[in-house]
Amino acid sequence: MEKIVEQGLLYDFYGELLTEHQRHIYEDVVFHDMSLSEIAEEQGISRQGVHDLIKRCDKLLSGYEQKLGLVQKFNQTKKMVGEIRELAGTFRENGDMALITRIEMISEEIGQL
User: Fold this and answer.
1) How many structural domains are present in the chain?
2) pLDDT(1) > 70
3) Angle, in degrees to the nearest 10, between helices 47-68 and 20-30
4) Which of 65, 68, 75, 86 has the highest count of CB atoms within 10 angstroms of its CB?
5) Burial of 7 (C-beta count, 10 Å sphere; 0-12/13-18/19+)
6) HEC-encoded secondary structure of 26-39
7) Residue 8, domain extent
């Protein structure tokens, strides 16, 4: 399951950099859960051709992430926002001003991403 989630995130961030043909086939595999055989029949290409295209797309999308790191930055930001929410909830309960300082620090880190 984790691979599908990773493929989906990479596609969300970098999918527009693929050709229309690559996007269509990649979407069929990742989002529509179609088999390689089903796609091959629909597209009029070999099953091996579909397999190779998916591997090539995975490699391209991973390469974009290695160079740009947008998914990593997104995940960091999401984690920090969760921490801010948790700290804000704790502050509401006990009014600890140190929590406000930590919230400010996290927001500055987010601003630098």
Assistant:
1) 2
2) no
3) 100
4) 65
5) buried
6) HHHHHCCCCCHHHH
7) 2-68
Angle at 49 between CA 67 and CA 18, to 5 degrees: 30
Tokens representing residue 37 in the block: 């055989």
Task: Tell me how crowded residue 53 is: count the other CB atoms within 10 A of its CB.
Answer: 21
Query: What pTM value is reported for the model?
Result: 0.77
CA of residue 81 relative to chain centroid, distance: 17
Over residues 37-79, the pLDDT tens digits come to 999 999 999 999 999 999 999 999 999 999 999 999 999 998 8
Residue 113, classed as helix, strand or coil, is coil
Give the DSSP H/E element, type plus range, for residue 69: none
Q: Are residues 78 and 44 in the same domain?
A: no
The domain that holds 48 is classified in CATH as 1.10.10.10
